């Protein structure tokens, strides 16, 4: 069997140079850690960390009907986006299952940037291509269009990279990197910012629970920006961070991971993310199923939990029990560096999905007590 070649981000050589442990993730060779997951986690919680997110996909939808069309494909309401704003949303199949969770930004009146998960980029692009309204044109290899199109879809992923800079000192680093008088946008907004001889997109978003920015730039500028951020960030204690710290940070905040907590077999209401679904919109893919789920209530719900004893951490696919009866399955689990407890998320039957309910997690044939908690598991006041 031929081994599939792993993709490399524009920052691959920098990760190797810094001594990162590289692993395969969604078809990409990515750093899982540089020093230790604990150190990188604490850097984000207490100072600032930088992550390579160049593996994530970037799709562009533009044209006079792009907004209207996207509103039929995504769960959140694109009409609420002013230019420069972004929102978290879902791309669903006809069964209401989650193909991908993503962030969509309105770059100008008729142009939208979709930042999608690495593992889903090609699938998302193909799905959206296949659902373009009749009369909309697709981008051609030549880059040219025969006539002006009401909606055009482009996959620019290969030509762009990105980094996420997260932590309490992100504002200090932003000004050190882009200029003292450069204004950082408010949460969930995106702006064009000069960087050297080019410009980059800076969005005030993140996946860690800390203040943060995501910077998107042409792939050719990746190494320059990465190294500038590491150099300018030295006074603030910056550390390069890998997938390991990303996972512990997001789990403490109960942020879901596509392919684990989210899948084509689960819908946003089951995942407890109905806030990002606008059922008042007259039509979008999967709407009827979600409407029924909301009316009847989901059979299972995604809940966060914390182990009650020190011991082995929970992991995906571990069974969840209550009073000896199996009620669900763990989707994500780890040892929380901030809380020093095993934490995780699991789908459990809706009748058992109550905050403060006591459950058991089966780990290697032995049951360990846990408790269903309220989101998020990590709170600043508790640190």
Q: Tell me the CATH superfamily of the domain at 7-54 and 159-251.
A: Probable tRNA modification gtpase trme, domain 1
| DSSP strand content | 25-35%
Give the CATH level 1 class of the domain at 7-54 and 159-251: Alpha Beta
Task: Give a count of the beta strands, DSSP E runs of length 2 or more.
Answer: 21
What key attributes describe this structure?
Elongation Factor Tu (Ef-tu), domain 3, single chain, 19% helix, Gyrase A, domain 2, alpha+beta, six-stranded mixed sheet
Structure description:
With 383 residues, the protein is α+β, with helices and mostly antiparallel strands. Among the domains are: 7-54 and 159-251, Probable tRNA modification gtpase trme, domain 1 (Gyrase A, domain 2, 2-Layer Sandwich); 300-378, Aminomethyltransferase beta-barrel domains (Elongation Factor Tu (Ef-tu), domain 3). The protein contains 8 helices and 21 strands. It has helices spanning 12-17, 37-46, 66-73, 121-130, 170-178, 222-232, 243-252, 287-296; strands at 7-8, 21-25, 28-33, 49-52, 57-62, 86-92, 98-108, 111-116, 137-138, 152-155, 160-166, 190-195, 198-203, 212-218, 239-241, 300-307, 319-322, 325-336, 341-349, 358-363, 366-372. The strands form 4 sheets. Strands 12-13-14-11-4-15 form a 6-stranded mixed sheet. A 6-stranded mixed sheet has the order 6-7-8-5-10-9, with helices on one face. It has a 6-stranded antiparallel β-barrel with strand order 16-19-18-17-20-21. The radius of gyration is 21 Å and the shape is globular. It starts with 6 loop residues before the first strand and ends in an 11-residue tail after the last strand.
